[in-house]
Design goal:
single chain; alpha/beta; eight-stranded mixed β-sheet; two-stranded antiparallel sheet; 19% strand; binds S-adenosylmethionine
Amino acid sequence: MLSYRHQFHAGNVSDVFKHALLSRLLIALARKDKPYFMLDTHAGLGLYDLEHPWSQKTDEWQSGIARIWERTDAPEALQPYLNAVRAENTDGRLRHYPGSPRIARKLMRPTDRLALCELNKDDCATLKAVFANARHTTIHNQDGFSAIRAFLPPQERRGLTFIDASFDQADEFARIVRSTKEAHARFATGTIAVWYPLMAPSAMQAFARSLQGAGLPKTLQLELTVHPDDWTEHIRGSGMVIVNPPFGLNKEARPLLDWLWQALSPQKEGGTRCDWLVSE
Ligand code: SAM
């Protein structure tokens, strides 16, 4: 039973964080001429109407993308992501928010291949409509975790597996650790990016330990927290683990995350993290 619907959360602080980093990963992959492949295991709708009643109900995007999309002082590294959002809102009013598939396709070259998995039948139908006629893009109404077996390794031998699970099941952290191991075993040189919500410190320590014991190569851990540790309204922040990150991402990400934290934490609570979980 799928209870999670991303329409409630589109454009929130976690989306800004994950999509800003996704854009850097794709730009790094495009530095070489050779085409690459991206698997988005949990794709969502592709494009979100922020005037939808579910978005209006939570208003989460107001404390996320609405705070930064028109800022003129954003760092250069954030521009591709902000431009992808602006491209959906050319009349100057923020109404549409692009999800990971839409941001990816915008930054990918015509020859790069994108596979999108979305288990929710209705959301997958919307995703198909958003990508009608898109070249080198396939959409699959299937479990994203099992898609790792179906799609990896890709014929291109270069690429990104993006795992953005909905965390509506008790064992989701264990499942993403297993899937990360599996993705690496099948495609050792590929980059794997895994988004996660920040939960109780003990759960986060257990997650970090199990990744460190998973036999992974160099792995970066990035986090953006905008609320204090005892925050209970919704998640206080989120993180991304990146296996085989592109060269220089750690140096690039630090100022980017610091800028986002300044912009998205008006009370100056929480902070950022940019550390090697598994070092070089
Ligand atoms: N990646 C999207 C983005 O950044 O725009 C957001 C994805 S949202 C966090 C998670 C999505 O995964 C939801 O749309 C949910 O329906 C879908 N989902 C849940 N379990 C799934 C599974 N096992 N396989 C594929 N999709 C799943």
